């Protein structure tokens, strides 16, 4: 019986040594893997932050682009109005040139005679 107890104690102590060895190996593996896991987590966090910054900056640029497009559209409208006003002024200038030529050539005397008659009328 004493031999059996001694053998059981040896088997238990061998099993305990194996269990301790397995635990030590697992702890070493965990300690070796931990920096990689932390590094991956840090990399993912950095990627998320970078993506958020990209989206924010892209949004700012889109906002500026929209604002500049609105200002450009307004400037184009003002330019069209100014061009139309300039064209109207040119047309009026041309009208006055034509009238001046008609008067110089005596082709608009009827207008002058009509003005004289209106001035001679009593009120």
| Total count of domains | 1
Number of helices: 2
Count the E strands. Answer: 0
Low-pLDDT runs of 5+ residues are none
SS strand fraction? under 5%
Helical content (DSSP H or I, runs of 4+)? over 70%
| Gyration radius over CA | 50 Å
- Major sheet: none
Shape: rod-shaped
Q: What's the rounded overall pLDDT mean? A: 88
Succession of helices and strands: HH
How are the SSEs placed, and which strands pair?
Blueprint: H1 2-104, H2 109-120
Explain the overall architecture.
With 123 residues, the chain is mainly alpha-helical. It has one domain (2-88). Helix content is 93%, strand content 0%. The N and C termini lie far apart (155 Å). 0% of the residues are buried.
Annotation keywords:
rod-shaped; 123 residues; single chain; mainly alpha
Q: Can you summarize this structure?
A:
With 123 residues, this protein is mainly alpha-helical. It contains two helices and no strands. The longest helix is centred in the middle third of the chain and has 103 residues, at 2-104.
């Amino acid at each position: 019986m004493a031999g059996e107890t001694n053998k059981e104690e040896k088997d238990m102590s061998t099993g305990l040594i194996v269990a301790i060895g397995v635990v030590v190996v697992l702890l070493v593996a965990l300690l070796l893997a931990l920096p990689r896991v932390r590094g991956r987590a840090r990399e993912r966090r950095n990627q998320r932050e970078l993506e958020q910054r990209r989206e924010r900056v892209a949004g700012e640029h889109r906002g500026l682009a929209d604002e500049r497009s609105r200002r450009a559209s307004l400037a184009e409208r003002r330019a069209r109005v100014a061009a139309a006003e300039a064209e109207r002024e040119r047309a009026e200038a041309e009208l006055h040139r034509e009238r001046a030529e008609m008067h110089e050539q005596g082709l608009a005397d009827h207008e002058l005679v009509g003005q004289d008659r209106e001035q001679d009328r009593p009120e």
